[in-house]
Structure formats: C-alpha cells, structure tokens
Amino acid sequence: MTRGETRNLLKGLAFLSPWLVGFAVFMLLPIVLSMYYSLSDYNLLQPPAYIGAANYRALMHDGIFWKSLRVTMLYAAISLPAGLFISLGVAVLLNVSVRGQSIFRTIIFVPSLVPTIAAAILWKWMFNQRLGLINRALAPLLELLHKSGPPWLDQSSWVIPSLALMSIWSVGNTVIIYLAGLQDVPRELYEAAELDGAGKTQQLWHVTIPMISPVIFFNLVMAIIGILQVFDTPFMMTRGGPNRASYFYTYYLYDNAFTSLKMGYASAMAWIQLLLVLALTGIAFWSSKKWVYYQSK
Amino acid sequence: MTNRREKFWTKLATYMVLIVICALAIIPLFWMVSTSLKSDTQIVESPPRWLPDKLVWNNYRLAISSDWAHFPLWTRNTLIIAALAVIGTTFSSAIVAYGFAKIRFRGRGVLFALMLSTMMIPFPVLMVPLFSIFVWMGDHTPIQWLGTSKPLWAPCWFGSAFSIFLLRQFFITVPDELSEAARIDGCSEWGIFWRIMLPLSRPALSVVALFTFMWAWRDFLGPLIYLQRPTQYTLALGLQTLQSQHGSTPWNQLMAASVLVILPVLVLFFIAQKTFIEGIATTGLKG
Known about the structure:
The complex is a heterodimer of chains A (297) and B (287).
Chain A: H1 3-38, E1 40-41, E2 49-50, H2 54-60, H3 63-95, H4 101-109, H5 116-127, H6 133-145, H7 156-169, H8 172-183, H9 187-195, H10 200-227, H11 232-237, H12 249-259, H13 263-291
Antiparallel strand pairs in A: 1-2
Chain B: H1 2-36, H2 58-65, H3 71-102, H4 108-118, H5 123-140, H6 150-153, H7 161-171, H8 176-184, H9 189-200, H10 202-218, H11 221-226, H12 235-244, H13 251-271, H14 273-285
Helix pairs in contact in B: 1-13, 2-13, 3-7, 3-10, 8-9, 10-14, 12-13
C-alpha cells in the first residue's frame, strides 16, 4: 500500500468507527454469546453451564415450539400474499391520474402511521363480538342469514385471520414503495405497448409487473423478515390465545427468556429463527432469478 | 367515440374503488375519535350512531389523570428517549455514511455489504444476549443499565444500518468537485463533512430523524424488556398496562388515550409529509 492508501484507510476507518464499535458490541458479540447460550443451561442468575445440543433436542420434542411455528406460518400464509398483492393493487389505482389523487394517497397512508399500541386497542374494539363496529355493521346481513357475528379474536379458528386482516389495514408503507416503483416505469414502454395493440390488462401483465418486479421482491423480503418477528399485536390483543392459537414464534421466545428465565432455551430458538430468516430470504433470492427482471444499466 | 366512453367508465370505476378503499382506511380512525367522545351509555347503545350526542371531553381528562396512569410522565419519558435516539442516530449515521460514500479505501465494499446484511438480523435474535450484556455492564461498571432507559437509546449513538444506508445514498449524489475545492483550500476531511456535506444534506438528515422518531415513539419490545417501574414507562408500554391490567378501563377512555398517542405523529406527518413520502420511496428503490 502506498502512503496515500494507508492514509485513506485510516481516515475511512476513523469515520466508520462508531459503526465498527457498535457492530462489535451490539451485533457480533450478542450473536456469538447467543450461540454459546444456546448450548448452555442459563437462567441469568448463575453463569451459563455448557450442556451441548440439549436445548435443540428438547425443542424438537416441544409441542409448544412446533405450535408457535405453525401459528407463525399460518399467519404468513395469509398476510404475506394478501399484503403484497393488495398493496400492489392499491398502488396501481393510486397511479392512475384522477382528481384528488394526493388526498387518496394521504388517506391510505395514514393508518400505517398509527403506533402499534393504539392500533391494537382500536382493533380490539372494532373486533369486539357484541359491541364492535364490524359485527354491528354486519348485523343486518347476519340477521338475514340467521347467524351471529363471527367471534374474531375470541375463537382459535378466527384469531389468525383477524390479525391478518388488521395487518392489511396498515400496508401504507408498502403502497408508497410500490408507487415510487410505478412512477419510475418509463412512459415510452406503455406507448409502445399501446401501439402494438395491448390493452390495459395486458400492459399491466407485460409491462408494469416485470418492470416493478425488483420492488415486489424487496417488499417480499421485508415481509418475510417482519412476519417472523411478529410479537406486539398478539401480546397486546390476545395474550397468545385463545388456546395458544395466536402464540407466535417470537412470543414463545420472549416467554422462555423473560417469563421462565430459560435464556439458553430461548437462545436456541433465536438461532433457529435466524436460520429460518436466512433460509427463507435465500429461497426468495434464488427464486428471484426466475421472476425478477433487472433493467440493464 | 367508444374509446372515450371506455375511458370514462374506467375512470369512474377507479374512483369508486378508491373511495371504498379510503373509507375502509379511515373509518376505524373515525370510529376511534367518535368513541373517545361518547358517554358510557352511548358506546353500548344499539344501533350505534356515527357521532356522539354531546361531546364528552371528560373522557380525555379521566384517561390522563387516573391515579395509576402516569400519562404526563410517560409522555416525558418517551420524548426524552426519542430525542436522544434521534440525535444519536442522525449524528453517528451521518459520520459513518460519509466514510462509506466519500472516502476510498481498501475493504470498503466488503464492510458496506456486511453492514447491509445486518439489517436482516431480527431483533428477537439479539434480545437475550443484549439483555445479559446490559446486566453484566450494570454489575461491572458503576453505571446502572437495566431498569433505566439507557439500553433504549445508547446503541443509537453507534449508527443504524438503515440510516447509514439512506444517508450514504444521498451523499454519493453530492458532486466531488465541492469537496475537492475545499481540500485544496486546506480543509480537513472532518471540516468537509461538517461544513459542506451536512448543510447540503438537510433533506436526507430530516428523513433519518423523522424515521427514528417514529420508531422510538412506537417501539414496544425494547421498553417492555428493559424498563421495570411504571414511572419509567414509555407511552406505548404505559398504554399497554392501561388496556391489559386495568381491564375495567372503559372503551371511551381507552380510545381517548389512543387518540392522544396518535396525535403527535399525525401532526408531524402533516408538517413533513413530503420528506416522509420521499424517504419511504427511496428505501425501496435504490436497494
């Protein structure tokens, strides 16, 4: 290295130093510690005692662990595709030039600003079986069918669809990201497609979707990472119930760590969660070669 | 002629669908405000009415002033944490982003990729060891960490990957000629960062500040783990105790409290709407 290069390296590292320190202390060290804890019996009061893979073996035979994984996957199966496609549809509509466009955009974005705790309280009230707005709005229809309103959060078969429904309410962020992608699609492409006789639907399939597929991919990866971490809403709204039907993966991890003080067990769960994130985003990246279209720059 | 008619109908259909979607988005919030101003008897009345008969502002007073709810204290705690998080994140992320954007050195690309990949690590994966690190630091240094708000804002002073990324994307668009000229005039690298880059980057800095504030305002899991006494709680955590442990809190008061928590965020949004939308848009595009 020349003297200039060395000087630049030192300068660069000096500017990076806050992050380098933060990365070492708040990221690397915890990950290494977490690995060690996951192989230990550790209750925070005594130092961790090495027990090999016992935590992982116990997890494989832990019915609640599998249950929490199933709950999370079921939620993902509903809210991930619904969220991705509904927000794409809404973004396409918001991209059509109509009068009042900016007002529509603002209104659709506002729910995603609502802090989780406020949204949780609000939707508990909306979902209330007897007094909630949803069942009261459905009342005339239900009367016609001679049925009572759905129990939403109060019954195990309804709770996950209810939480997924609520998550769709706050897709504003995703819509904005799609919208930015849509605005970047060159106008000439649509004009060329129109000259070739393509209708609106064909333009959507053959121009819009391929052109914004990188944005769809970005939103997909963010959604995968986000869904594996769902904790706040079930903790606030259902306490994981009824019958553990909304006992999400992260919720069980939290309970192991901070309710039962089984830090080693919780760390094993954390490592499995990390591997899950890596595996699922890995699959997404691998599949992206087949459906994501990158413009040559 | 048919083409124009077709256009008219598409436009009308778009309007209809947009209006329905907007109604679905806004009605829950409207219902929240409406419930917060209704009397105890009116919230259970059937059929429900959209607007309260008379506005019961007392719900707001009751929600704030009941003796086990420390609403003013929670607001103060949240504001202090948010302020420290915003200042720390914005300042430290800008320094690091400058290093990534404007200084050429060996290994920069690898470090940048490493930093981006940390964004994929979920917080729950880190929370157990982080907790034990803060316990350890409390035992081995004179500073108490657990049961204080320090674990919530101190890590912010070491840059956040997301903010560094956002600022770096902005910094690389600033032409090098400016800094070259300053360098020839004998300006130090820090001087270039401080006197040229930062003043030019006000829009990007405000995006980072806004997002960090929003994150701190709504953060729940962090405060839940680290804070122990109700007097230290943030608004999110306080409201959670309000709605779970005191099961008898009437819906109208809960809605009043929720409205109060949303209000500052909404005001901020309407003041800085453009900054907000552009910021979110960049996150998805330049990735």
